[in-house]
Design brief:
Layout lengths: L1 H31 L2 E7 L18 H8 L2 E7 L5 H10 L33 H7 L3 E7 L23 E5 L16 H28 L6 H29 L2 E3 L2 E5 L6 H15 L5 E6 L20 H23 L6 E7 L31 H4 E7 L8 E3 L3 E2 L3 H9 L15 H4 L10 E6 L2 E7 L8 E8 L22 E11 L18 H16 L11 H4 L18 E2 H9 L1
Parallel strand pairs: 1-7, 1-8, 2-10, 2-11, 3-4, 3-7
Antiparallel strand pairs: 2-9, 4-5, 5-6, 6-16, 8-9, 12-13, 13-14, 14-15
Helix pairs in contact: 2-8, 5-6, 7-8
């Protein structure tokens, strides 16, 4: 009888125990599979947000994100340029591994109808999470290519790299996209248009004078040929000026062009609405949102609510508008009670573009704080970027972590959180950040980080285990111009080879932990282990380069140049390539 009562008691207790078990499983599942929002600014300097020390730019929402989570103070972009940095971010791999690093001067895509882009065999974190049941979206800038062989194959498009939804621009924001803001092709115009026209003009005048003086008889055909050549150059130049904007600056929704050329009117507000609507559509489903702002790459812009309101001109207006947008997303998560179950990451694709000065002398680039250099070079100002992560349920608020981390680390971090196994057929250079963020580890998993200037190995960072030192050795450095300045102002960005750099033998060595401004290179006299440190770094560089397979160069001239057959245009727009379905849809909705 006693045994029967015991069995009955156990049977009754099974039900609440099972309920508790399932509730625990559900809670554990939620904690391990958070919603994920990855926010990336464009060309934002580490010295721009208030939480990184700026006292005059107002960024209360980015600061709120930092105070509610972890601020990384040595967070590094895998490349100091947009396209390769974003390729590394998406794949967790150095861009040289995928052919997304250039051997020439131009290190980013400048035409939507180029055939280069993120290769189809690369695996993005979006693809991994989509395979795990996540709803995935990219809102904003892509800049990783569009098509390969025909304008409808979309082989590099976000939807072919794991995203369910895309709203934004396939290329990048450029001065040429906004009338009156100048051009990124000024140097090219000078070399290919103005100088040839001047030579032709001087030649024509010289021949005419010699002809008139009877010193040389110049056939009439030569005059006509030179005039025809001048007319051809001028026609191509004017055609480029007229067509570049509509052919390269357009908004897409998935595979469809919805605004060509794109309008800057309330552009950040439109991106914010799209991001908010995606979140609202997926309150019952785990989601991945990559919110990739056009701010603060030139051409700078802001809506009337922000124009002229900051203390830093049009650049400050753009930063403060972006911060407002971040706040809208944070507020929405609170309203929907999703904040505790959402991991948010905020960063910039590289450092501020210090050479960005308008034709009127206005500073259009941001602040890299105390750090030297900026976008397009591997001084700390070019690669040390904001890195903020918040996940209230898991990450303790108010932390600051000084260990070296990389934007490549997001790939393995979100993959593990989503329950996705990492690919085993390739090297993943990123490291899972969660042990650092949760306080389970006090030391970065990156003993070595390799800093590339386009496809050239430029510098190596070594953080020895059980040491506070962080050694950084430069094999070459850019030649700043004017001499003594903090950038390459004559060429607008620094280049990576030839007369644009100075090679160092032995390499230039710094201890970043003691000299973050990189002002005092070490010598055998100031560092007794000088040659020993360089030997370890060189051996690490040699081991690393041996892991690099030969891959197709996505920046070869064949892949980089504009191809008419890959050019996208609005349906039924004829040769004008102009439409505005955004405005049309807005009218229909009212």
């Amino acid at each position: 009888m006693a045994q029967d009562h015991l069995q009955l008691f156990i049977a009754k207790m099974k039900i609440p125990f099972l309920l508790l078990f399932f509730l625990w499983e559900a809670e554990s599942h939620t904690a391990s599979r958070p919603n994920i929002i990855l926010v990336m600014a464009d060309d934002l300097g580490i010295g721009d947000p208030g939480c990184y020390g700026n006292k005059t730019l107002r960024t209360p929402n980015i600061d709120r994100l930092a105070s509610g989570g972890v601020k990384l103070t040595q967070h590094l972009a895998a490349s100091p340029l947009c396209t390769p940095s974003r390729a590394a971010f998406m794949t967790g791999r150095y861009p040289v591994r995928s052919g997304m690093a250039s051997w020439s001067r131009t290190g980013v895509f400048l035409f939507t109808a180029s055939s280069g882009g993120l290769p189809t065999n690369e695996i993005t974190f979006a693809k991994l999470l989509k395979d795990q049941g996540y709803s995935t979206a990219l809102i904003g800038k892509w800049h990783l290519g569009m098509s390969c062989h025909s304008k409808t194959d979309f082989c590099h498009h976000p939807l072919h790299h794991g995203f369910n939804y895309f709203y934004g621009i396939s290329l990048t924001n450029l001065r040429d996209c906004k009338p009156g803001e100048g051009s990124v092709f000024t140097t090219g115009f000078k070399r290919l248009v103005f100088i040839p026209l001047q030579i032709i003009g001087v030649t024509l005048l010289t021949f005419a004078a010699l002809n008139c003086l009877g010193l040389l008889r110049v056939p009439l055909g030569i005059f006509f040929s030179l005039l025809f050549l001048a007319a051809l150059i001028l026609t191509l130049f004017l055609g480029f000026l007229h067509y570049f904007r509509p052919l390269n600056c357009f908004m897409m929704r998935n595979y469809e062009i919805i605004q060509q050329p794109m309008s800057y009117d309330n552009l950040t507000q439109r991106l914010t609405v799209e991001a908010a609507q995606f979140i609202q559509r997926n309150t019952e489903t785990p989601f991945l949102l990559v919110l990739s702002y056009l701010h603060v790459h030139t051409a700078l812009f802001s809506s009337k609510d922000f124009a002229g309101k900051s203390k830093h001109g049009v650049y400050g207006d753009a930063v403060e508008e972006m911060d407002w947008s971040v706040g809208q997303i944070l507020n929405l998560l609170d309203e929907l009670r999703l904040a505790n179950d959402t991991l948010i990451y905020f960063t910039s694709d590289q450092g501020a573009h210090v050479e960005e000065v308008s034709s009127k002398g206005e500073i259009h680039g941001g602040s890299n704080g105390i750090y030297k250099g900026g976008k397009a070079n591997n001084w700390e100002g070019g690669i040390r970027v904001p890195g903020i992560l918040r996940w209230p349920r898991v990450i303790q608020a108010g932390q600051k972590i000084d260990e070296p981390t990389s934007n490549m680390d997001i790939f393995p971090t979100v993959a593990k959180l989503a329950g996705a196994p990492l690919p085993e057929d390739r090297i993943i250079d990123g490291r899972d950040l969660m042990p650092l963020l949760e306080g389970k580890s006090q030391h970065s998993d990156h003993e070595f980080l390799f800093h590339y200037c386009n496809a050239y190995l430029n510098a190596v960072r070594w953080h020895p285990q059980n040491s506070t030192s962080i050694w950084k050795a430069f094999f070459f450095t850019p030649n700043f111009n004017p001499v003594g300045s903090n950038g390459c102002f004559a060429t607008h960005v620094c280049f990576c080879f030839g007369s644009y750099v100075t090679h160092h033998d032995p390499p230039l060595l710094f201890d970043i932990s003691k000299d973050p401004r990189e002002r005092n290179p070490l010598t055998p006299a100031t560092e007794p282990r000088f040659y020993e440190i360089l030997k370890v770094i060189q051996e690490a560089a040699d081991r690393h380069t041996q892991t690099l397979p030969e891959v197709p160069n996505q920046f070869s001239w064949d892949n980089f140049l504009w191809k008419p057959w890959l050019q996208l245009c609005c349906p039924s727009s004829g040769l004008s390539c102009q439409c505005d379905r955004e405005k049309q849809d807005k009218r229909l909705s009212h």
